[in-house]
Amino acid sequence: MDKNLGEIRAELKKYNQEHLLNGYDKLDDNKKQILLQQIENIDFELVNFLYESTKKVNETKQDEITPMEYLDKSKLYDDYKYYENIGKKAIEEGKLAAVTMAGGQGTRLGHDGPKGTYDIGLDSHKSLFELLSDGLKEEGKKYEVTIPWFIMTSRENHKQTVEFFEKHRFFGYQKDKNIFFFNQGELPMMDTEGKILIGEDGLIKLASDGHGGIYEALVKNKMVDKMKELGIEWVFIGGVDNCLVKMVDPVLMGIAIDKGVTVACKSVVKANPKEKVGVFCKRNGKPNVIEYTEITDEMAELKDEDGELMYGESHILCNLFNVSAIERMGETPLPYHVAYKKASYIDQDGNLIVPDSPNAYKFEAFLFDAFGEVDDMAVLRVKREEEFAPVKNADSAGVDCPRTARNLYKKYHNLD
Ligand code: UTP
């Protein structure tokens, strides 16, 4: 600890956050240390900035949005083999690693435990983690390599995640040799007055900083150094909840290498112009994703001369990065998006408050906000039924839920 209690109190006063020490005297010594450390780690200028940003949600943006070019995997014809051979060579040379982002809270699914431990109801009862590991191992066999696997967890689910892997003997992987776990960053939650919340445990209420935290987490936790040690040049980064994710794709990799881009992403075509998904675009000339809340109906309907939607390539969190791009993105602060959530907390008088409606701001960075850091990237359209079966919601929602994912998985793997 660099500062004494008096200095910390003065710092808190400056930022109008003195309440954070209200319950300090009642904490045990260990928690006292943790709380002080938490306070020292908070960037209060950033907290102020984030709070101010909650008041500007309706600001209209003046960005210039234009369509992004893409390739269709099913229409590459002779180029398919050409790209595939380039990618295959790099995979065989051990240049590819996979990263699974498993730090989300999975609130919509409502599973009691990390989302990756969820059993989607196949006869095998395999968890999402196991389905992902099956895919990686199968591909690794083809190229006679072990694809190193990096798993991002949150503080909340780290222990449970690692224990789950231990229980399953890391699905054949070896911890710290070819499978690595690391924690993502966190930001304090705050109330509508901008006051940082104290949780039930008497400590600051922190929440994961969104999947955009991946770059900084890879750099800060020295995972990028590890990748370099292993001779990795390309990293596939995907979510934990797509049970058809294809993390090893020589065609995607070949395209990135051949075109000399440091980022290559997969897309699936929008189911219809109104589908609530973000789509690839160029924003002020740089690669980006435009969210469904942002795109006008007119833009969403626009078609090119081939009858294809001009803004129809959905971002499905299946992205390949050169290590150099990750390093660059890890050093660039991303904008934070605000979400209004329910969060229990200890009030100024020491009472536990459990709200029944949203009461607190949570801040999240989005992975695609970093795309603008590169001048160009490749987008490859793949088939939804082959590569995209997300588990987002409970079955009652009827879409992107265990039932739909299970059916897609079974169909693709001929399990019926
Ligand atoms: P989602 O945005 O679907 O969020 O994450 P989620 O946490 O899984 O579910 P909800 O919104 O609470 O219902 C997409 C992917 O990004 C990861 C998730 O684990 C998932 O693989 N993610 C999300 C993180 O790793 N960290 C985060 O802070 C947020």
Put the structure in a nutshell.
This protein has 416 residues and is α/β, with parallel strands linked by helices.
Treating each run of at least 4 consecutive H or I residues as one helix, how many helices?
Answer: 13
The overall number of domains is 1
Q: What percent of the residues sit in helical stretches (DSSP H or I)?
A: 25-40%
Mean pLDDT: 96
Largest sheet: 8 strands, mixed
Say which CATH homologous superfamily is assigned: Spore Coat Polysaccharide Biosynthesis Protein SpsA, Chain A
Instruction: Determine and state the CATH class.
Output: Alpha Beta
CATH architecture: Alpha-Beta Complex
Beta strand %: 15-25%
Strand order across the largest sheet:
2-18-10-13-9-3-4-5
Shape: globular
The radius of gyration computed from the alpha-carbon positions, rounded to a whole number of angstroms, is 22 Å
Number of strands: 18
Write the layout of secondary structure elements.
Blueprint: H1 5-14, H2 29-41, H3 44-54, E1 65-66, E2 71-72, H4 78-92, E3 96-101, H5 128-143, E4 149-153, H6 158-167, E5 179-183, E6 186-188, E7 190-191, E8 206-208, H7 214-220, H8 223-229, E9 234-239, H9 250-259, E10 263-269, E11 279-283, E12 286-290, H10 297-301, E13 313-322, H11 323-330, E14 337-341, E15 345-346, E16 352-353, E17 360-364, E18 378-381, H12 384-387, H13 402-412
Helix pairs in contact: 4-9, 7-11
Bound molecules: uridine 5'-triphosphate.
Uridine 5'-triphosphate binds at residues 101-108, 115, 152, 184, 208, 210-211, 239-241, 317, 392.
